[in-house]
Amino acid sequence: MRISASKLKNIKPASVTGGYAPKVIANHDLLAKDLDLSIAADEKDAALASKPVPLAVELTYYKPMKWPVHHNHLTGDITVRSYGIYNVELFSDFILRVGYYLGIPMTGPTPLPLKIESWTTIRGPFIHAKSKDNWERKTRSRLIKCWDCTPEVFELMMSVVEKYGIPNLGVKSQLYVDHSLESIKKDLNMVDSVALKTVSKEEDAVLARVRELLADPAFKRHLDADAERVKTEATQEHKRLESEVDAEVTAQV
Amino acid sequence: MAIGNLANRFGIPVLIPGGRFNARMLRDHFKRQQSAEHEVTVNALRYISRNTTLPPRARIEAQLQMAAMPNYTKIMSTKNRCTLSGRGRAVFRAFRLNRFTFRQLARAGKLSGVIRAMW
Amino acid sequence: MPVVPNTLTPAALRLAQLIKLSCGVFNEVYNPTQIRTGAKYLKRKLKGHVTGSYYTPNSFPSVYDLKKHFPKEIQHRFITNEDKYKLHMTLARKRRGKGKPKKKDGPPPEDPKSKKK
Question: Where is this region: Disordered (chain A) (predicted)?
Fold first, then answer.
């Protein structure tokens, strides 16, 4: 038995009433008062009327509700991918509901382009190339955007999503956090802009090895021999240009 | 052969791959392990040989050293083989399987999401 | 990185200054004459880890490995595919009456056909 929307008379999202504060909905005390259980014609209805269904469960029969986006501040993205339609639609619906109960304004699920990978194989293991088989794998995905909330709330939602995850589904999420420049510098122990020219870990490995090799006598003798000699034409040209440019800059200044 | 076992046939011991494998797969596996080990050195030598700001003799030295390194230290020498049958031809990258093994598993329904295409 | 021409006209000079400043601002390498420094081999992502792990990892023990690991008294508890096959074949033979013959005491009975005359 589905309780009609009219009976959910006192349960309205705060957005309709004008406020932004999310209202706790899944509250059993609220149920008995707000649901009009007097109109129970059948025996079934009567039985069910004596055992009220939790509101959150009842709301699953309706489309997920959404909070409106007020500040247009994107907090996070969630991408849900699967090889079938059912999983993807079910879980994106679930994510929207979780987001609603946590008070996160969400937009979506926007369907991302269908990705079809296809392969053609020869049927047999040996020759007979005239008879083939075509195979494909369709990846369906949905994108859900979370707006206006703090990173903590988003991470809380992701923890719920992870806990109640379903199989055969891929969930990717991105969290966008704004940092001030000072905090970033502090985090990375940077004092001035020179320190920003640090190399990544992978570069480090190769660069370190290059330094090792150049210190090796096999290479060092060539480098030493060339120490006095002026470098290649290319670098000469570079130096000349740079000196011209610098001279001009200093003149301007 | 069991877990943790080494193959000594190449002079340098290499951990054998899991599951079923054959001689060609083992050889390719050895090349993969060695090229992964020496990747940093190869890239460093390549950098020195390509850097025009360094003296020419140093660059030639780098080229010679790279040429002297055995072929199993270069990623180029690796070949994508089928991980089940060891076949070196008609291997799909997405599955690391050759066309026939792929078909066998796809028909058995063991490849997630793969279906007979109809259009 | 736009190339700075050899002969610097006033316009080209201004552009060259702009390029140099912007490199400083955006933390890029300033290389107006496009000297081949080989820096791409430093920036390149290393893929040895990916290519090295192409085949199935040798990290999970099979039933055969477990069997060998334990003493002989307990080894029969680990049933490999070979053991299953052997068992299947022996049962099939028994059903046909081709099972293992019973052990007999004493010499075999005289065969009347092979009686020496």
Answer: 231-253
Residue C113 lies in a domain: no
Distance, in Å, from the CA atom of B14 to the CA atom of A218, rounded to the nearest integer, reads 30
Q: What is the DSSP string of A102-116?
A: TT--EEEEEEPPPEE
Q: Tell me which residue has tokens 């320190």.
A: A195
Which of C38, C48, C61 comes nearest B51 by C-beta? Answer: C38
Main-chain dihedrals φ then ψ at residue A143, nearest 5 degrees? -115, 130
CATH no., domain A63-175: 3.30.70.600
For residue A36, give how far its alpha carbon lies from the nearest alpha carbon of chain B (Å).
47
3-state class of A167 per DSSP? coil
Q: Indicate the helix (H) or strand (E) that contains B40.
A: helix B23-50
The one-letter amino acid code at A13 reads P
Per residue, the 3-state secondary structure of chain C, as one string, reads CCCCCCCCCHHHHHHHHHHHHHHHHHCCCCCCCCCCCCCHHHHCCCCHHHHHCCCCCCCCCCHHHHHHHCCHHHHCCCCCHHHHHHHHHHHHHHHHCCCCCCCCCCCCCCCHHHCCC
The shortest C-alpha distance from B3 to chain A (Å) reads 30
User: ipTM score of the complex?
Assistant: 0.87
C52 CB near a chain B CB, below 8 Å? yes
Domain B2-79 falls under CATH 1.10.287.1480:
yes
- Give a yes or no: residue C103 inside a domain: no
> Helix A151-163 vs helix A85-101: angle between axes, to the nearest 10 degrees?
140
pLDDT profile of chain B (119 residues), mean per 10: 76 90 96 96 96 92 96 96 96 96 96 95
Mean pLDDT of chain A: 78
Sign of torsion over alpha carbons B83, B89, B94, B99 = negative
Residues in contact with C34: Cβ distance below 8 Å, sequence separation at least 6, in sequence order:
C1, C3
Cα–Cα distance measured from residue A238 to residue A228, given in angstroms and rounded to the nearest whole number: 18
User: Per-domain residue ranges for chain A?
Assistant: 5-50, 63-175
Closest by Cα among A97, A75, A69 to A150: A75
pTM of the model: 0.72
Residues of chain C with a CB closer than 8 angstroms to some CB in chain A:
4, 6, 8, 13, 16-17, 20, 27, 31-33, 35, 41-46
pLDDT lower than 50: segments of chain A: 1-2, 13-33, 39-40, 191, 193-197, 199, 253
Residue A174 three-state SS: strand
